[in-house]
Amino acid sequence: MERRFFLQAGSVLAGLPFVSRGAWADSTAPDHAAVDHAAMGHSMAPAAAKSGSGPSLPHGEPLPALQPLANQAAVAGQFSGRLRAAPVSVALWGDQRRTGFWAYNDSVPGPLLELWEGDEVELAFDNRLPQPTTIHWHGMPVPPAQDGNPHDPVPPGGSRHYRFRLPDDCAGSYWYHPHPHGHTAEQAYRGLAGAVIIRSKRDPLRHLPEKYLLLSDLKLDDNGQIAANDMADLHDGREGQFLLINGAWQPQIALARGERQRWRIWNASSSRIIKLALPAHELQLVGSDGGLLAAPRDIDSLLLSPGERAEVVVTGRFHAGKPAGLISQPYVRGKRMHAEQTQDETLASVVEHGMRPTLALPATLRDIAPLGIPGHRRRIVLSENMADARAPFLINGRSYDMHRIDGTGEVGRIEEWEVVADAHMDHPFHLHGTQFQVLARSVDGIWEDELFLAWRDVVNVPAGEMVRLRFVQALPGLRMYHCHILEHEDQGMMAQIDFLPR
Question: Could you tell me which residue ranges the Plastocyanin-like domain spans (predicted)?
Fold first, then answer.
């Protein structure tokens, strides 16, 4: 038995080196057991630590690496590989108990895809799940027919090839996950997610050592199995007892005093909005969903909603009297059926590992030109209607219908959207197929200009507030837009717009 597993990418087990290749779960049926949410609360400490019952996980191991998918292409500028979604059985505790996951290539998280701008990409995909599924290339500028939309399901036992060419200006941190209508949340929380890095040969930060941190939730029942969503999860969005990094719970990250590291961070959780901080160290934001910023920005904390990515440069300082580790600070997102986080939680310990010289950080990273005057404006309202269990989450008053077109646009035309959260919860907004620029946000009902330009494909819209953004779609076809709390997406908070050639 090959013990090749780590609870990495956006789902469940990475840091625990226990995934067995080829060891299949006894059952592929969804687990409908419920969890005591009142006992669990929001804390990332496991319920077992608070109540004396339930599972706990090993912790404190070195941060696992994301394992790359091998490139089978023999020609430069091409990437070819194979992904398979299938059940896998994992021994989380190193004993005879096993936990069933759904995984890409028997690995949770899935393999890391390392691509280059301009690559011709071909990925063969096999579905060995009991449900239809797709692969959505989150944030990547791929044609709609290749983007894993709900309209293109791969049935159980089926397969398909994803083929696309990457543009020459799309370097950044992306990820892949399922997007079948009605099954996205379950497939993601059972383990299906993986990271994508698209590299540029003109990268001004290529001299810095990199670390990859993929954040994900794991929610286990008292028997050590992945718990199904209950009514509270469907309302608030799912948050597990364990917030993992690369599948590991509270791992150790090595950092030398004075050393500068480039961290790529993915929030691959279903619904958790995470406010990250490194109080003992120097922290600079250098990138967002769509790649590098124009210049580094000093920050004290970083707010990442589900689906968002960021790049930060961490300089090891180990200031006395401050926690050396990576922490999650409290953030209130308007949950009604779970407790909010009320205190700092440790996500990883940062361990001093010698001393190194501090490498230079360029003052400028790239040019980002603001988009011009829009050719069309729209208002997108995200709302909640808990009186209707069949359609509790809406966009512009409608629940998602995959056979309905909610609007049309034009390829190459600048669009300006005002996205409104007419809701008691925050709703992270995601648009397929392109990156957008946030122009302004409302704070207590007053518009404030965005402080800096960045390319994004997810933006959090706080309860009762608004975000104004602009974008251009470069390719024709149907594009989805939705809340990236996956339980809300599955229950109707999604719509679609058809972009027509000019």
Answer: 98-202, 223-315, 389-497
**Does any domain span residue 390?**
yes
284 and 138 within one domain: yes
Question: Cβ atoms within 10 A of the Cβ of 370, count?
Answer: 8
Q: What is the pTM of this model?
A: 0.90
Residue 58 pLDDT: 85
Q: Among 347, 366, 385, which residue terminates a domain?
A: 366
Residues 245, 220, single domain; the answer is yes
Pairing of strands 252-257, 345-355: parallel
**Shared domain check, 388 and 317:** no
User: Running DSSP on this structure, what letter comes out for residue 284?
Assistant: E
Rounded to the nearest integer, the mean pLDDT of the chain is 89
User: Does the residue 418 lie in any domain?
Assistant: yes
Contact 42, 334 (CB under 8 A): no
Lowest mean pLDDT among 26-40, 119-133, 377-391: 26-40
Q: How many domains does the chain have?
A: 2
Q: What is the radius of gyration, based on Cα positions, of the chain?
A: 21
Looking at the fold, whether 358 and 474 belong to one and the same domain comes out as no
pLDDT in tens, 385-406: 988 988 999 999 999 999 999 9
Distance CA 340, CA 113 (A): 35
**Cβ neighbours of residue 392 closer than 8 Å, sequence gap 6 or more:** 235, 384, 385, 386, 491, 492
**302-319, pLDDT tens digit by residue?**
999 999 999 999 999 999
User: Is the pLDDT confidence value at 209 over 60?
Assistant: yes
What one-letter code names the amino acid at 481? Y
What per-residue confidence (pLDDT) applies to 37? 31
Q: Is residue 152 part of a domain?
A: yes
Residue-by-residue DSSP string for 28-69: -SPP-----HHHH-S-SS-HHHHHS-S------PBPPPPPBP
Domain ranges, residue 38: 1-366
Three-state DSSP class for 376? strand
Residues 412 and 449 in one domain: yes
pLDDT attached to residue 44: 39
Does residue 371 form part of some domain?
no
Mean pLDDT of 442-467: 96
Q: Which of 176, 207, 192 is nearest to 113 (CA)?
A: 176
Opening angle at CA 498, ends 492 and 500, nearest 5: 175
Q: Which of 326, 347, 366 is at the close of a domain?
A: 366
E-only strand ranges, 91-193 = 99-104, 113-116, 120-127, 136-138, 159-165, 172-177
Are residues 309 and 436 located together in one domain of the fold?
no
Same domain for 135 and 180? yes
